[in-house]
Amino acid sequence: MNAHAIQGCVIAVPSRGRLREQCLGLLSSAGYPTGMLHGGGSMARLDGLSLIEMRPRDAAAALAAEQLDAAFIATDLAMEYELEDLPAVPLGFSRSDLVLAARDDDPRGVGGFAGAVVATHLPRLTRRFLEGRGVDATVVEMGGSLEGVCASGLADAIVDLRETGTSLARNRLRVVEEIRACEALFVRRTEAAVLDDLALRLQASLDARRHRYVMLHVPRERLEALREVFPGLASPTVLPLAGREDLVAVHFVVSADDLWARLSDLRALGATGIVALEPQALLP
C-alpha cells in the first residue's frame, strides 16, 4: 500500500476498545471531527489527513514497514516493532507496566530463567530483554490471557502488561521485574507540516487537561501572598473591580493538582468568587 495514494498523510487510529475511545476523544478535543469513524476499519478524510481504524498491533507493524505516516499505539508495541527512535507524543492515558512475572512460589530472579519457557504477546521485545540480561530462554508467542498459562505450568514465566495487578494476584503470580512503564503514544515517521500541526494540537489539548484557568477576587494587598501560594505564578492578569478599591480580580493558569492542593490556602488569604475552568488548549 502506498500511504500517500490514499490521501495525504495516513494515520492509524485504534479500531476498538478503551484506547480507541480515548484517542478519538483527544482528537475531538484537538478540533478534529471523528464522527466518520464508526468502527470496522472505517476511514475519515480531513484536510491533508486520512484517519484509518486498525488494530494497534497491525498499525505498529504497518508503521515499521513504512506503510503509515503515523499511528496511535502504546509503548509496548513501539518497543516490539523497534519504533522508539521515531518522534512521539506521550498521551498520558492507557498506562500500564510491562513486567516479567512468574508463580509466587518460584523464587528465581531474571537470571534464573535460563532454559525456561517464557510466554508473551511480544516475542521480539522479550527476546531482546532476555538476551540483554544474558538469559537464553525459549520465548513462545501466545494470544489471549497469559496469567493462566503461567499458573498452570505451561510456561515458567510471562512478559505481559500489568494495569492493576489484580489478575496476577488472582493467579498467584508475582512480578519478577518491571521492564518498562507504558502508555499510549502518537508516533510518526513522516516529516510533514500537517503532522507538525496535529502533534501541536494534541499536545495543547493534553496540557489543557492538566491545567485550570482560575478567576477570583482577592484583597489588593494580598497579591504578593497569592504568588506565595503558587510560587510558579509569574505575571497573573490583575483587573480592577468597579466600585471597589479594596478588591481586584485575578486571572491565572495553574496545574489542576496545584489548584486542589492549595484551595484552602486561597480561602485563607481572603479569595472569593473562585471559578476554575478547563481550558480548550494551552500553548506556552
Output the keywords.
single chain; alpha/beta; 6-stranded mixed beta sheet; 5-stranded mixed beta sheet; 11 helices
Helicity range of the residues? 25-40%
- What distance lies between the first and last C-alpha atoms, to the nearest angstrom? 38 Å
Tertiary shape = globular
Low-confidence stretches: 1-5
What portion of residues belong to β-strands? Answer: 25-35%
Task: Tally the beta strands.
Answer: 15
Averaging pLDDT over every residue, what do you get?
92
Helix vs. strand class: alpha/beta
Give, in spatial order, the strands making up the sheet with the most strands: 2-3-1-4-11-5
Largest sheet: 6 strands, mixed
Work out the helix count.
11
Report on this structure.
This protein has 284 residues and is of the alpha/beta class. The protein is 31% helix and 33% strand. The protein is built from eleven helices and 15 strands. It has helices spanning 3-7, 17-29, 56-64, 75-80, 123-132, 147-151, 166-170, 193-209, 223-229, 256-261, 263-268; strands at residues 9-14, 43-46, 49-54, 70-74, 88-90, 96-103, 117-120, 138-141, 157-162, 173-182, 184-188, 211-219, 237-241, 244-255, 272-277. It has a six-stranded mixed beta sheet with strand order 2-3-1-4-11-5, sandwiched between helices. The longest helix has 17 residues, at 193-209. The radius of gyration is 24 Å and the shape is globular. Mean pLDDT is 92; it is low at 1-5.
